[in-house]
Amino acid sequence: MFESISYHKQKTIIIVSFLLIPMILLGLFTYYPAVKLIYYSFTNWDGYSPEKPWVGLSNYKEVFANSDIFKVFQHNFAYLVMGILQNIVAIYFAIILSSKLRGKNGFRIILFLPYIMNGVAVAFMFGFVFDTTNGSLNMLLNSIGLSSLGNTSWLGTEGLVNYSLASTGFWRFMGYNMVIYIASLQAIPRDIYEAAKIDGANAMQTLWRITLPNMKAVIQLNLFLTVTGALEVFDLPFVLTKGGPAGASQTYVMRVIESAFAYNNYGLASAMSIILLLFVVIVLLLQQFVLSRGGDK
């Protein structure tokens, strides 16, 4: 059968055959739900009724007209701040653990271990850390003489709760980013560093002129993941605070879940999800624009 078919057509048939099942799965579990989500965003569906009344742009108008919905985005700011600090610390440890340091592989494992832990388990663990009366953090502060901070309600104070929750993500994901940055550092040719050393460049000049510019693509990727991750936070506040106190730690995704499953307003929740997706796309485009202009200079 294949003897009468040209080599080019045989190659095309083989490629299409290998791609057919992955493309079917991608369409079935990614693109089809996305299309249905867009459709539901124009309806007033309650999640279980066979009728899906068409309401047009009403859901989108309600999202943009309701200031309380967008107000929760300010709670995500703490996760963005901690995410940026997390990347800075990850780069610092990556540089240190890429040098000739004794036992560096052991330190890499220790710092990476939090990432492989289950997210819900991490949340419950830090629930004991931040506990007001018997929490290990307050006990530590009291033991070192900082009794003024030793009775702080880390998850019950409006100004602290989001930063406390975000610090949990800092602890968990810093090692993961560190490993990515280590891989990026190992891809930089050693000859460049040797040439810089011969030219008399010090450590700071080497960092700013060689290391960071060669890591730009990876830093760009991690910053995008950091921003989108900050916009999509859900598990930590859901497990530890349920959005409290008084909604101070409620995030946008929690608001979407609440609209869908607590109020059975799947149409509004779908519209909110589409808007979040558009925000992520806008963030990606802005980042690409800013960094591409920086690269042209």
TrEMBL record:
InterPro entries associated with the record: ABC_transporter_permease (IPR051393), MetI-like (IPR000515), MetI-like_sf (IPR035906)
Subcellular location: Cell membrane
UniProt keyword list: Cell membrane, Membrane, Transmembrane, Transmembrane helix, Transport
Bilayer-crossing regions: 12-32, 77-97, 109-130, 170-188, 217-240, 260-286
GO biological process: one example: transmembrane transport
Transmembrane helix in keyword set: yes
Main location: membrane
Membrane topology (UniProt): Multi-pass membrane protein
CDD domains: TM_PBP2 (cd06261)
Domain ABC transmembrane type-1: 76-287
A GO CC annotation given for this chain: plasma membrane
Source domain of life: Bacteria
PROSITE patterns referenced in this protein's UniProt entry, alphabetically: ABC_TM1
Family affiliation: Belongs to the binding-protein-dependent transport system permease family.
PANTHER family for this protein: ABC TRANSPORTER PERMEASE PROTEIN, INNER MEMBRANE ABC TRANSPORTER PERMEASE PROTEIN YCJO
Protein name: ABC transporter permease
